[in-house]
Write a structure and sequence with these properties.
This protein has an eight-stranded mixed beta sheet with strand order 12-11-8-6-7-13-14-27, with helices on both faces. The protein has 21 helices and 38 strands. α3 packs across α4, α6 crosses α7 and α8 packs across α9. By secondary structure, the chain is α/β, with parallel strands linked by helices. 31% of the residues lie in helices and 24% in strands. A hairpin with a 5-residue loop joins β33 and β34.
Length: 662
């Protein structure tokens, strides 16, 4: 229930009269003759009259001057919706269409360096140079260019150049272990790898040239490496000695001899591959299209987040998190995007706010875990740093503890608009978030996003109000995946979202939608591991852990906790009676840290006698997760449906014993 004590922020005159969504409502009234008195009415129209709403977004943002289309929605079925057939849009062209001399396009900043600005004109020149280089390498529509890069200006240039030539972009952050990167890039089959020599994080330098050589050996489709000398002095010899592989230095690329040309691609031409992991098998390569991303990010960042051309937009992220792509989308609005390559907690817990003040950020995006960490430090960023320009904070990745909502207004940014958003890699956007027209209250996401037919359903497909259920989307979105990599018949795509409710998108979150449309997300309803917003499948963990000869079997669980914390235990069945001692624990954590990701090192490693499974052999991840969250054993699985069923009582006892310690 909402109370006055929960109220943290309310819209004022500027929001009612001059926010992007207020201007949109006025435009719809004048041009379409449609009058909406509040956000709820606008949302109901946007989520039911899809052709009317999305054609309005198209015109409001001037896309009608760029291309025509035959119809808005040729086929509304899910999966397989056909958006804007006949339209031709290039993501890079739309990003660069907002160029101005009034402000920079990019601001790059490292842990110890001064901000470096890139003008819109210089950005266009750099994109032209790299696009020309890619074309000389034989890259064109249908080819893949992969990035093994941190959050650098060069990464944005590489993405835009790839999109400009009509090729498909994909990226992995260099803090991922080589096997984890290969599990993704082998599927993408890149012809070119744009790779960094290393990166700095937390005050330490990491040399990644040997890892680039390993990647080259493991990617048989690779013909070119475009080497970005980020932190080390360039070496005369190439990083890889693999025959048939040519290395080019980014810093030595010649200037393009002709103006930048953009591939003329249809609306649904593949733009990039984002990576999300299921609970079994290899990571899923999610392919999204030029047009769908353009219209979705115009809507989500403009009408939702209220991003404006004069904003300086910073998101604390690695290139492996979809919010990096969401950050680049700021260019579609003519905003300046700030690229911070470093740790938010360097040189201390307030490192990110120091960067925000230094760069004049007006909108800052971050994960909930970072906000909670700063709160626990008992510091006072509002008093310590000049954050007067900060007008909005975007928070995502997981739920925010109630105390942290209040701390943002008490200690961080008393006058800012805190936007808690829920979305995901799957759509590269926001499903539920904030609106400048709605108040902010503790613990509640104010509304479903415009155009998103979001609901909470029970297991039988009945809508729920005020009760927790599965987050579903009952109508298509333009940025939903075109397809998955290596999924020619669509079976994996179908199984990922549409098996539970045929024709309805099941997102995999527990959610409550109240009468006032406010939303509470209770965490993942599947077993995806979601650490600080970076998702990884349990299969990735098993691949590493179970290669150790001392480990016979394992089970990893990610548990969202009521206080906003995230508990990730790893349960291990040892081989041949081996003791799970500190030495073996260290081997396990080192293997996960080096081969996968430091973010996904488990909180505890616990010995168990056996791993419960379904009768078809699948590890019982979701039921065990629910037990660790407090559900009774009888409520999570049917009698006789699992092997090693006695382990369920063991996990219930573990949950009871470990709860006070967490």
């Amino acid at each position: 229930m909402n109370t006055d004590t929960d109220l943290l922020w309310s819209p004022g005159r500027r929001e009612w009269e001059d926010s992007n969504v207020a201007c949109f409502m006025e435009w719809v009234s004048e041009v379409r003759g449609l009058h909406f008195s509040d956000y709820a009415e606008l949302w109901r129209w946007s989520s039911t009259d899809l052709p009317g709403f999305w054609s309005a977004v198209w015109e409001f943002y001037g896309l009608d001057a760029a291309t025509r289309y035959d119809e808005v929605l040729g086929d509304a079925s899910m999966p397989g919706a056909k958006w804007f057939p006949g339209a031709r849009l290039n993501f890079a062209e739309r990003c660069l269409a907002q160029a101005t001399d009034d402000r920079p396009a990019l601001v790059g900043v490292t842990e110890d360096g001064m901000p470096v600005e890139t003008s819109w004109q210089e950005l266009r020149h750099q994109v032209a140079d790299v696009a020309a280089a890619l074309r000389r390498m034989g890259v064109g529509p249908g080819d893949c260019v992969a990035g093994y890069l941190p959050n650098l200006p060069q990464t944005v240039v590489a993405l835009l150049a790839t999109a400009a030539v009509g090729a498909v972009w994909t990226a992995c952050s260099p803090d991922f272990g080589t096997p984890s990167v290969l599990a993704r890039l082998r599927q993408a089959r890149p012809a070119v790898l744009v790779a960094t020599d290393g990166y700095r994080y937390g005050g330490k330098a990491y040399d990644k040239r040997a890892e680039v050589a390993e990647l080259a050996d493991g990617l048989p489709t690779l013909h070119h490496i475009l080497a970005v000398d980020n932190i080390f002095t360039p070496l005369p010899e190439p990083w890889s000695a693999r025959p048939g592989l040519e290395q080019h230095a980014w810093s030595e690329l010649p200037s393009a001899q002709s103006p930048l040309e953009f591939a003329d691609v249809p609306f649904d031409h593949p733009l990039w591959i984002l990576w999300s992991s299921g609970t079994t098998g290899i990571p899923k390569g999610i392919v999204q299209g030029h047009g769908g991303i353009v219209v979705e990010l115009l809507k989500a960042l403009g009408l939702g987040a209220d991003l404006r051309p004069d904003d300086r937009y910073l998101f604390l992220t690695s290139t492996s998190w979809m919010v990096w792509n969401f950050l680049v989308g700021g260019l579609l609005h003519g905003s300046t995007i700030i690229l911070y390559d470093g740790s938010p907690t360097y040189p201390d817990v307030n490192g990110a706010w120091r960067i925000a003040a230094q760069t004049g950020a007006t909108m800052v995006g971050t994960g909930a875990a970072y906000l909670a960490a700063v709160e626990k430090s008992d510091t006072h960023p509002a008093a310590e740093f000049g954050l007067d320009r900060l007008r909005s904070i975007l928070q995502t990745g997981s739920s925010l503890p109630p105390s942290t909502w209040r701390w943002v207004y008490d200690r961080l940014a008393p006058n800012a608009w805190l936007q808690s958003i829920c979305g995901g890699t799957d759509v590269c956007s926001v499903l539920a978030g904030s609106s400048p027209l709605l108040p902010v209250r503790v613990g509640r996401i104010p509304c479903p996003s415009l155009g998103v037919a979001l609901a909470s359903w029970d297991p039988h497909g009945h809508p729920l109000t005020g009760e927790q259920g599965e987050l579903v989307v009952t109508a298509p979105l333009p940025s939903m995946p075109l397809h998955f990599v290596g999924d020619p018949d669509g079976a994996r795509y179908q199984a990922s979202y549409f098996d539970t409710y045929p024709g309805i998108w099941r997102h995999g979150d527990w959610v409550t939608v109240d009468e006032d449309l406010s939303v509470v997300v209770a965490g993942r309803s599947d077993s995806t591991l979601n650490r600080m917003g970076v998702r990884m499948g349990s299969a990735d963990i098993y691949t590493v852990v179970e290669q150790l000869p001392e480990v016979a079997d394992s089970l990893v669980i990610g548990v969202e906790q009521p206080d906003g914390g995230y508990f990730m235990p790893l349960f291990v069945v040892t081989a041949n009676g081996t003791a799970l001692d500190d030495r073996l624990r260290k081997r396990i954590t080192t293997a996960i840290k080096s081969r996968l990701s430091p973010r996904h090192v488990p909180d505890v490693i616990v010995p168990i006698p056996a791993v419960p499974r379904t009768l078809t052999g699948k590890k019982l991840e979701v039921p065990v997760k629910r037990i660790l969250q407090g559900s009774p054993v009888a409520d999570v699985t049917s009698e006789g449906a699992v092997t090693q069923s006695e382990m369920l009582a063991w996990f219930a006892d573990f949950a009871a014993r470990s709860a006070p310690d967490r």
